[in-house]
Specification:
The structure holds three protein chains of three kinds.
Chain A (H helix, E strand, L loop, with lengths): L4 E2 L20 H30 L3 H7 L4 H34 L5 H13 L2 H12 L6 H6 L8 H11 L3 H13 L2 H8 L4 H30 L2 H7 L9 H10 L3 H38 L1
Helix pairs in contact in A: 1-13, 2-13, 3-7, 3-8, 3-10, 5-7, 5-11, 7-11, 8-10, 9-10, 10-13, 12-13
Chain B lengths: L1 H4 L6 H28 L4 E8 L3 H19 L3 E8 L1 H9 L6 E3 L3 H10 L18 E2 L2 E6 L19 E2 L7 H17 L4 H13 L8 H9 L6 E5 H11 L4 E4 L3 E4 L4 E3 L1 H7 L2 H12 L1 H9 L3 E2 L7 H4 L6 E4 L8 H9 L4 H5 L5
Parallel strand pairs in B: 1-2, 1-3, 6-7, 9-12
Antiparallel strand pairs in B: 3-10, 4-11, 5-7, 5-8
Helix pairs in contact in B: 3-12, 4-5, 6-7
Chain C lengths: L1 H5 L18 H27 L3 H10 L1 H34 E2 L3 H7 L2 H4 L2 H12 L4 H6 L10 H25 L3 H9 L4 H9 L4 H17 L4 H4 L10 H10 L3 H32 L1
The chains are: A mainly alpha, B alpha/beta, C mainly alpha.
C-alpha cells in the first residue's frame, strides 16, 4: 500500500522548494504508520460506507437513479440545499469574527467564550431541536406572539434553518481558533505598523494565512448542515414534500422498508461530500500558488 | 470561498462593495425562493398527522379521498401526510404543527392534545362512531419459518432460550399494546394473581435482547438483522413484513388471546377553524367510515369497524382471536392504563430488569 | 504648588481589560456576542427556564435515580473512550495524510468528512448491520465471543465513527502549514528523528489535538441518532442519556426532559471549560 515517499507539506509550496534534506522517518516507520492509519480508516470509515453503497446499489443503477425521481425526494433535496445555503454563510461570518476576537486580543472571560462556542456540540441533537420548540412553539416563550403576527418558525423553513445553525455553530470558529493561535498576530501587527487599514490587514494578511482552515471549517459545516438528523427531526413536523430534509426523507424511506431508496439517497449525500472535497483539491491546485505568493507580501 | 479570499490588489474598497452587492443579490434570491415555497399553495391542503405503520394505508386513502372530493364538489384538495412515533406526533401538534386531522395510535395521545391545548374538545372520542376508531388492530407474533421454537401462545415467550423482539413501551405506541396484551393474557391465565402477572411480565422482558425506539425499528431488527425468535407486532405490520421481506422466511402465529387496539382519529377544531378547512377535514374523517375507506383499511390488514361495509372475502383474511378492550375493568381506559403502566415509575419501570 | 499641578500625569496608558493592538475588536467581539446570544444562549436559557420547574428537590431526585445515573455514566464514559481513540488515531491519520504520499491518498483525505455528511441515523443503521451477528464484521467477531452490536461496545464504535473528522480536521491544517525549517534545524543540530518528532513536531499539535478531542467528546455525549440503532437501548445497561430525554418527552414530561438536558449540559460545560483552560495553558507553555 505505502510506497513510502515523503510527501511535501503544503501542496502549493513544496513545488518551489528544493528537495528537502533527509529528515523524514525511515521507510519502515512510514509504512507502519500508513498501514495503521489505513487499517483504522478501513474499519471505521470504509466498511460502513461500503455498506451504504452496497445497499443503495443492491438493485442496480436503475433503482438507484429511480430513488431521485420521486417528487418528495426532490423536494427534500431542494430544501436541504436551501437550508445549508443559509446556515453555512451565517456561521462563516460568525466564525471569522469570533476567531479574530479570541485569537488577536486578550480579554477577561476568553476561555468562557471559547467554551460557550463549543457548547452546541455537547447539546444532544434531540435537545437542540427541543430548545427551539420551547422558544417558538405554540406554548413557547415567543411562539404565541410570532403566531399572532402570522410568522411560523418551527415546522417550517425558519425553524429548520435555526436548528441547523445551532448544530453547526462551532465549526468554522473552532477550526480557525487553533490555527490563528498558532500563527500569532506578528504578521498583522507588522502590516498595521506599515499603515494598513483593518480591512486590508484582514483580506491581505489574515485570510491568505487561514485559507485552508477556513475551507475545512466551511466544508465540515456544510457536510454537517446537510447531514443533520436529530435536531431537524424535532422541528420539522415531517410533512411530506414540504418540511422533510434529505436525512428525514432517508428515515421515511427506511421505515417504509424501501432500503434501496433510503440508502441510494444517503449515498448521494456521501457523494456530495466527496464532490465538495474534490472541489477543494481543485481550488488548492488552481489558486494555491497565487495565495501563497500574496501571503508573503 | 477561496475565490473570495484572493485579495484584490487594486481597489479593496470597490472589491468590498462588489461583494456586498453580490451578497444582497443572493439574499434576495433566497428570499424569493423561500416566499414562493411557503406561500404559493392556493388550493385547499389538509394535513393529516399520523403514526408510523399507517403510511401505506393513508397513501391510498389520501388519493382516493382527493379523487372522490373532486368528483363530488369539483374542488381540488391535497392531503399532506406526516408520519412518526405517535407520541412525538401528538407533541408536534401541541407545539403548533397545523394538523387538520390527527390519526394516532392511542387515545391517550389525542387526550394529551385535548388536555394541553384548546384545539380539540375533551369529549372528542364520542364525536365519531366506534370510539372514533374507524379501524382496529391487534397484536400477533411473527416467527421464523416453520416456527422452530414452537411458539403458539404468550406463555411460550418465556420458555428458556426464546428471544423476544418488541420496541420500548416508553417510546412506542405499538409496544404499549404489546405490553398490555401480555399483561392481559397473564391476568387471565393466573386468575388475577397480581404477583404472578408481574413475575410473568418481568420474565418476558428478560427475554428481550434489544429495545428499539419504534415498531419499524424492531421489525428491521428481527427481519433484517436476524435477531430474536419472535417479534411482537401489529397485525397489519406482521402482514406487511410478509409482503416486504418474503413469505418464505417467516410465519405468523396468532395467539388465542390478545388485545383490541383502537387507533383513534380526531378533527383538530382549533386548526381547521383557523384555516377554514373544517368542511373538507370532516369529510375526510367521514370518508374513513365509508365503504371505500373501510375496504382500504381491510386491504391493509386493519380490522374495519363497520364490517358490513366490506367485502366478505377481505374479512375472511382476519384470524379469529379473543380480544380484550382497553376499557375492560382490568385496564380501566387509556388515561388510567397510561399512568399506571407507562408513567414515570409505572409498572414497566418497576418490572424492567435486563438479563445482561 | 504650581509646578505640581502643571506636571503632566505619568504617561501610563489607561488600563484596559482588552489587550491587543489590532483593530476590529469591537466589531468582531460585538458580532460574536450578538450571534452567540441569539443562537445559543437564548435557546439554552429557555431550556433552563423550563427545567427550573423541577426545583432543587426534583433535580436531586432525578440524579438519585439509578437509571438516570447509569445513562449519564454511559453517555459520558463512552464519549470519553471514543474521543481518546479518535485523538490518537486522528493525529496519526492527519500525519499520514499530510506528510506521506501513497496510492489513494486524496480519496482517503476526501472520505474523512463523510461521517458528518451521512445522516447519523444512516450511520447507526449501517454500523448495526455491519456488527450484527449476521453482518460482515459481526459474523467474524461472534465466534470469538465479541458482541459489538447491541452492547456498550457498539456505543463506542458509533461514537468513534461520528467523532473521527474532528481531530483529523483540526490537526491537519496545522500540519500542512508547518514550517519545514524548524524540522530541518532540529535535524541539522543533531537531534535524533524520534527527538525531533516528540519534542519539536508533536508539541505544537497538542492544542489542536486537544481541540479535536474536546469537540469529539462533546459531540459524543449528546449523540442520539446513530446510537439508538446499535446500542439495544436496554434501561440501565445500554440506554444513553439523550434517549432518556426522548422517553421523558414521550410522557409529555417537558420539565423532566429539560432537567436531564440541563444536567448533561452543566457537566459538559464544566468539562469543556476545564479542557479549554488546559489547552490555553499548553499554548502558553510551548
Amino acid at each position: 500500500m505505502a510506497t513510502g515517499e515523503t510527501f511535501p507539506l503544503d501542496p502549493p509550496r513544496p513545488r518551489a522548494l528544493p528537495v528537502p534534506p533527509p529528515i523524514g522517518e525511515t521507510a519502515m516507520a512510514r509504512r507502519l504508520l500508513v498501514a495503521a492509519a489505513v487499517l483504522f480508516l478501513a474499519l471505521i470509515l470504509a466498511l460502513p460506507l461500503a455498506g451504504v453503497f452496497t445497499e443503495g446499489l443492491r438493485k442496480g443503477w436503475g433503482a438507484w437513479l429511480a430513488a431521485f425521481a420521486d417528487p418528495d425526494a426532490r423536494a427534500a433535496i431542494r430544501l436541504t440545499l436551501l437550508v445549508a445555503a443559509i446556515s453555512v454563510p451565517a456561521n462563516l461570518v460568525f466564525g471569522v469574527a469570533a476567531a479574530w476576537a479570541i485569537t488577536r486580543f486578550s480579554f477577561p472571560g476568553r476561555n468562557l467564550l471559547v467554551t460557550l462556542i463549543d457548547l452546541p456540540f455537547s447539546v444532544s441533537p434531540v435537545v437542540s431541536g427541543l430548545v427551539f420548540v420551547l422558544l417558538f412553539g405554540a406554548n413557547g416563550l415567543v411562539g404565541p406572539f410570532l403566531k399572532a403576527q402570522g410568522i411560523q418558525v418551527i415546522f417550517a423553513v425558519p425553524g429548520l434553518v435555526l436548528a441547523t445553525i445551532f448544530v453547526t455553530f462551532p465549526f468554522v470558529a473552532r477550526e480557525l481558533i487553533p490555527i490563528m493561535q498558532a500563527q500569532g498576530a506578528a504578521d498583522e501587527e507588522a502590516a498595521l505598523t506599515l499603515g494598513a487599514s483593518g480591512w486590508t490587514i484582514f483580506t491581505r494578511v489574515t485570510l491568505p494565512n487561514i485559507k485552508w482552515g477556513l475551507l475545512y471549517g466551511v466544508l465540515l459545516c456544510n457536510a454537517r448542515a446537510m447531514g443533520e438528523f436529530g435536531a431537524v427531526s424535532v422541528v420539522s413536523g415531517h410533512i411530506r414534500g414540504l418540511t422533510n430534509t434529505v436525512p428525514l426523507q432517508v428515515e421515511i424511506l427506511y421505515n417504509e422498508y424501501d432500503f434501496v431508496g433510503a440508502f441510494a439517497i444517503a449515498s448521494a449525500l456521501a457523494v456530495l461530500a466527496l464532490v465538495t472535497l474534490v472541489l477543494k483539491t481543485f481550488l488548492e491546485w488552481r489558486y494555491g500558488d497565487e495565495l501563497a505568493r500574496s501571503a508573503r507580501h | 470561498m477561496t475565490t473570495a479570499s484572493i485579495p484584490s490588489r487594486t481597489a479593496p474598497t470597490g472589491f468590498a462593495l462588489r461583494r456586498l452587492r453580490d451578497l444582497a443579490i443572493v439574499a434576495t434570491a433566497f428570499g424569493v425562493v423561500l416566499g414562493t415555497t411557503i406561500f404559493a399553495r392556493a388550493d385547499t391542503t389538509l394535513l393529516n398527522v399520523s403514526y408510523d405503520p399507517t403510511r401505506e394505508f393513508y397513501k391510498e386513502v389520501n388519493q382516493a379521498f382527493a379523487a372522490e372530493w373532486k368528483a363530488k364538489t369539483g374542488e381540488t384538495v391535497t392531503i399532506r401526510a406526516s408520519h412518526g412515533g405517535s407520541g412525538k406526533q401528538a407533541r408536534s401538534v401541541i407545539d403548533g404543527l397545523d394538523a387538520d386531522v390527527v390519526t394516532l395510535a392511542l387515545a391517550a395521545d389525542i387526550d394529551a392534545i385535548a388536555k394541553t391545548t384548546s384545539k380539540i374538545p375533551a369529549d372528542w372520542q364520542k364525536r365519531l362512531p366506534h370510539n372514533s376508531s374507524p379501524y382496529t388492530s391487534t397484536i400477533l407474533f411473527l416467527v421464523k419459518k416453520g416456527n422452530p421454537k414452537g411458539i403458539t401462545d404468550w406463555g411460550d415467550l418465556v420458555k428458556p432460550g426464546v428471544e423476544v423482539i418488541t420496541p420500548n413501551p416508553k417510546t412506542s405506541g405499538g409496544a404499549r399494546w404489546n405490553y398490555l396484551a401480555a399483561w392481559a393474557w397473564a391476568a387471565k391465565t393466573y386468575g388475577g394473581d397480581d404477583a404472578k402477572v408481574r413475575a410473568y411480565v418481568t420474565e418476558l422482558f428478560r427475554h428481550v435482547p434489544v429495545l428499539d425506539t419504534g415498531a419499524r425499528g424492531s421489525t428491521t431488527t428481527f427481519a433484517q438483522r436476524g435477531l430474536g425468535d419472535v417479534l411482537l407486532a401489529w397485525e397489519n405490520e406482521a402482514y406487511l413484513v410478509f409482503d416486504e421481506f418474503g413469505a418464505g422466511k417467516f410465519d405468523i402465529v396468532v395467539p388465542p388471546y390478545s388485545i383490541l387496539a383502537e387507533p383513534p382519529v380526531a378533527l383538530v377544531d382549533g386548526n381547521v377553524d383557523a384555516k377554514g378547512t373544517r368542511r373538507q377535514a370532516e369529510a375526510f374523517l367521514a370518508f374513513l367510515y365509508s365503504e371505500t375507506g373501510q375496504s382500504l383499511a381491510a386491504k391493509h390488514h386493519y380490522r374495519p369497524s363497520r364490517p358490513e361495509a366490506v367485502d366478505k372475502a377481505l374479512l375472511d383474511r382476519f384470524p379469529k382471536v379473543e380480544l380484550i378492550s382497553i376499557d375492560d375493568p382490568l385496564f380501566g381506559g387509556w388515561t388510567k392504563a397510561q399512568a399506571f403502566h407507562f408513567g414515570d415509575g409505572g409498572t414497566f419501570d418497576q418490572l424492567y430488569k435486563p438479563a445482561r | 504648588m504650581t509646578d505640581l499641578t502643571m506636571s503632566p500625569a505619568p504617561a501610563r496608558p489607561a488600563r484596559s481589560l482588552v489587550t491587543g493592538v489590532l483593530p476590529g475588536f469591537g466589531l468582531a467581539f460585538g458580532w460574536t456576542l450578538v450571534w452567540l446570544s441569539f443562537i445559543v444562549l437564548l435557546p439554552l436559557a429557555a431550556l433552563a427556564w423550563k427545567a427550573s420547574g423541577l426545583g432543587i428537590d426534583g433535580f436531586v431526585a432525578l440524579l438519585a435515580s439509578p437509571r438516570v445515573r447509569a445513562a449519564l455514566e454511559l453517555s459520558f464514559g463512552a464519549a470519553l473512550i471514543a474521543a481518546l481513540i479518535n485523538a490518537v488515531f486522528g493525529v496519526l491519520v492527519a500525519w499520514v495524510l499530510t506528510r506521506y504520499r501513497f496510492p489513494g491518498r486524496s480519496l482517503v483525505d476526501a472520505a474523512v468528512d463523510l461521517p458528518f455528511a451521512l445522516p447519523t441515523a444512516v450511520a447507526g443503521i449501517t454500523l448495526a448491520a455491519l456488527f450484527a451477528r449476521n453482518g460482515w464484521l459481526g459474523g467474524l467477531l461472534a465466534p470469538l465471543g465479541i458482541e459489538v452490536a447491541y452492547s456498550r461496545a457498539g456505543v463506542v464504535v458509533a461514537l468513534v465513527f461520528v467523532g473521527l473528522p474532528f481531530v483529523v480536521r483540526t490537526v491537519q491544517p496545522l500540519l500542512a502549514d508547518f514550517d519545514r525549517e524548524v524540522e530541518e534545524a532540529a535535524a541539522t543540530l543533531g537531534a535524533s528523528r524520534a527527538a525531533t518528532v516528540f519534542r519539536v513536531l508533536l508539541p505544537p499539535l497538542v492544542p489542536a489535538a486537544l481541540t479535536g478531542f474536546t469537540l469529539a467528546f462533546a459531540r459524543g455525549v449528546g449523540e442520539y441518532g446513530s446510537i439508538v440503532f446499535i446500542a439495544g437501548n436496554m434501561p440501565g445497561v445500554t440506554e444513553i442519556a439523550p434517549l432518556l430525554v426522548v422517553i421523558k418527552l414521550e410522557e409529555f414530561d417537558y420539565v423532566g426532559a429539560t432537567g436531564i438536558a440541563v444536567v448533561m449540559l452543566a457537566v459538559s460545560f464544566a468539562l469543556l471549560f476545564a479542557i479549554n483552560a488546559l489547552q490555553h495553558w499548553t499554548e502558553k507553555r510551548w
